[in-house]
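Progress narrative, work stream C.
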Amino acid sequence: MLARATLASLSLLTSLAACTDDAPPPPTGDATLAEATPAQLRRIVTGGLGLDGITATFLVGSYVDQVGVACPAVTTAGDTLTVTGGCTTDDGVRIDGAVVGRNVPALFAPPDPSVVTEVTLDGFELDDPAQGRMRFDGSMSWRADDYYAYDLRTVIGGLEAELTARYEVDDTSMAPVGDAQVTVPGVGTAAIAGRWNRTLDGGTFELLGADVLTIDLGAAREDCTPYAIDGVAGELCDE
């Protein structure tokens, strides 16, 4: 179901850890997860899993092979890709805002771990009468099988989310590092923890707020994903 959806500081932390047997507590937020509506809960979970960023990554990558199309206007100059909206496609999708990306790989291109991709999205919005509205603001960067970093504010399914997170990745799994967090208005901010398969078919995902949500992704079914909030079981299901 969910698949549809500084060096100085590090040195200081390492030194502190060496001086004490007590590990620092994990970061937490103020999100009241148990009080969230099902739609809000789905939104904060998919945001925390990095799916907003992955959606933006696929979207930007889809324009690499569309240089010269009329809407949106897609141009390249050296290693820089620019996508400009302010138009409506033949299919009736309104596109506004702009994207500027450096070293953006085409969709399904073989990963190149020697290349860092950097993308800025400025009010980039797609309003599809059939599929709804998506809007992306912020920045993201990544290197294949190394990391994904997001500072994104998005609207998907009519609900906003803000993701500020860096994930370490390998060829099969991903995990948040540092102060990774996701915010949904009306719910609050939650820290992101765990490690899970990039295919979302295994591993553990956690949101740490005023309460703690835990998901065993290996237990997910086609339509529903079981979770627990402070030990109380529930399910996230497709609408």
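Work stream C, second folded protein:
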Amino acid sequence: MIKISICSNHIFDIPLIMLSETIITMTALQLFSIITFFGGVIVSAFVFIGKKYVDFFKDKELEKFKNRIFYENENSKRQFEKELEGYRSQLSILEGRQTRINDKISLVIEELYSKLIEYNSSMIDLTQTLRLVDSSDRNNLRQEELERIKNSTDLGNDYMIYYHKNKLYFNKETRILIENLNEELKNAFWDYTFKERFAINDSAYTNDILKKVSEIIRNKVPILVENLEKSFRRNLGLEE
């Protein structure tokens, strides 16, 4: 038995075994509290370390992902620029080729139009119904007529040959206009020169044919030429 004095007036008797149990219980509670505290600290530490570990690897993965996206974007950019440069090169080649074609078309139109005007002018001169001449010299008159026929023949052949050698430079609309005009000029020349080919003397019949030919050259052909000129201007980009 142990006597414990709380104050000078009171003394309590406490059995030793109870005191021992009390001390053990208190010690166990303190130990449990300590273990619980340090356990909580350790768990918190593990949680903190684990979070940091996860955050570390998360940041690493995020950085790797960012780097991968960056490099992929750079590769895509370089690939795009490479393809774009290829397209630019092809476009430059096509533009150069189209420029050469347009230049060629311009030259062909200019040359063909020049030959057409010369040919048409010779036909106008050839098919005149009134001409101031000296009727006393018939041989000279015939020679002049043959020279006009030869001149129209040469100019017409030159014009026709040039057109057929270069017709691929004209679109369908322009070809139709040219060939309709060519047909009228060819028929007019053929009808005008038939009496020379067959050695037919002048008569009312031949004079009537020559008059009709002259009307075609002076009335119908100019309309066809004007339509062709409009088509040429469109092809040259000059149409208003």
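The chain has five helices and two strands. No further action is required on this item.
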